[in-house]
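hey so u asked for the seq, here:
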Amino acid sequence: KVTLIQSTNNSVGVVFDKGISQDVLNIHINTINAVKVVYGIDIIYEITQETVGVEFFVDNSGVSMGRVKNIETLLPTAKNLLKNGADAIAVVCKFQDDSENEEY
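ran it, structure tokens below
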């Protein structure tokens, strides 16, 4: 039997894509702040210097795929979060969902 032990000292670093609109970014930051207060999780975040540029498309076989145009902008931001104490990194990027015409 495997038992999971709750961690009490890890810090999560969140990389936000500069391309995310201010309204959507505010929702994410408010959610992070709520999680920090309610669950006591240590979360730090930073915004990339350049837009990441995530694209989604469906290939000829009908499989949904994607690509990151400017992946190089993620590394310095993630490294800075690690330098500032993050133990794990999460990435949040802007992409357009054409079926709903909303930004995520």
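The chain is about 25% helix and 30% strand. Strands lie at 11-16, 42-47, 54-58, 64-68, 88-92, 96-97, 102-103.
lmk if thats what u needed
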